Amino acid sequence: MKKIFISKVFLISILSLFLMVSCNQDFLDQKPTDELSELDVFQDPTLIESYINGVYGSVRHPFVGSNGVMKGEFVDEAHDMWYGFLEFNNSLQTSDDLQGWRYEDWASNYRSIRKCNVFFEKVDQGKFNDVLIDGKTLKDRLTGEAHFLRAFLYTQLVNLYGGVPIIKTTYGLTDDFKIARNTYSDCIKFIVEECDLAAGLLPLDNTGGNYGRATKGAALALKSQVLIYAASELHNNNPKFSGFANPALLGYTSGTAQERWTAAKNATKAVMDLNLYSLYKPEPATGAEATQNFIDLFIADRTTEDIYVKFFIPKEGGTSFWDDNYGNNLALVSGPNGFHLWGQNAPSGNAVDAYEMTDGSKFSWANPAQAALPYENRDPRFYSSVFYEGVKWRPRPPDVAIMDPVGVIQVGTWETWDNATNSMVEVPGLDTRNSPIEGFNGGYMGYYLRKFIDPSVDGQFSGMKVPWRYFRYTEILLNYAEACIELGQDAEARTYINMIRKRAAMPVITESGAALRDRYRQERRIELYMEDKRFYDVRRWVLGPETYIDLTAVDVRYKLNPDNTTATVPTITPKVHQTRKWDDKSYFFPIMRDEMNKNDMLVQNPGY
Question: Residue 342 in contact with residue 70, Cβ under 8 Å?
């Protein structure tokens, strides 16, 4: 009887619900009280600004991955190393295979591009006033920011894949999603147009709470970078892909390189002619001062070089996460593990060896004097960018200070004699993989990154507010010098390269022609080290085989002397950490299988 009673109650409830729905046909159309529709958002200027903030937040920077975890491996030489772990085989890459690569990717960029497209379709429905802030109305500023962000997102795609589909409208669920890739030339033209539109709508500078949003200078700087990359060898009749049936997807098939370098030079000069930016502390009195200036440049909130910067705000209350200024959660402050930091940002030996001597000559392990004391008399930027054995940094945390009260980097191993066992005992340094202090966090390379690391940060979960500089003025000067070199204007190029070297307290360069191009590329590598440029530079210059050589590290050892005392000066020996072999297909990323399956109009890149 009880079961029958429950069944009747259930039946009555269903009938009652049916009658309620029948009496009120709008029942299923009720608006949720805890959600905002796109129409609601674009009726409120504050919500529209928050919407654009969300697009800012989706734009990646090298120290964060898609899951919000700080991933500093994804830049430069270490960026390259992580890239080498991925398996790109016969177009079989799927989103799951990208777990080790959480930076730029096809799907996430197109999701953000769609947000920009929604903005352009809805913004004219918005209710704005004509109040000027920093010389621009809110509607103009936000529209300019949307153009800038869309250009930025397409730039990330083009840098990885070549020509991609240009999508300027939003798709509904019933729409045909199939669309072919646009040519590389079309994509560059579109990005440049977006940058020009943005530059015309954005303020020269932002003040107050708007500082850090895109400006006219940011849009022009992006245009400079895009045209510099586009003029480079990879995209100009590259013979490596002469057999590919769709060469227009990878680069230009008409016009001349000179025309493109001239356009790049002019675009870069437009940033310089704004007269808003300058080199940070360009005339140091000594090498030590140049080192300190370079340290300060990357931990300061604002500098004279800043063109487009992303800021971060540490959370209060001892939480383990920190937020960027658009709400992204980040975690794990990097640095030597013996300071209770996350030791994942480890420069390669290849990168360290690239730093010149103070007289401008190359460093070489084959030079006995240099090999004996490899960290003496190096480019001042080396000391501001790299932690190495024996350099003093800051006091250790209290629990570690009893082992090292001075705060000296220890990536070596001490060979000591144990009289009790009449044998040698190895004592690992505090910042090694065998350290008693979180050895699992230690690096493998014998180095740690100093650049960007705020010495005031106390613990890997304490939060760090060092901003990320997408564009700074030094890159603009380097872009200008590169365009001059490619146009045969060597004297003008040397002027700007030497301005940068003077700021670094390094001697001027005097080369011309191909030798000048080599010195420029060396200077760019050092000056922009770990700023997410090298990964793309070696590709656009088509230097894969020369660059993707075996990854090196160093073994640092305080050897046991014949009298059973321990040497006070370490023996430092280079070693191979990872063997690598370049494959020309790696100049471009593969389009993921998921995307190819959804859209049979897509053409895969060569080699996959």
Answer: yes
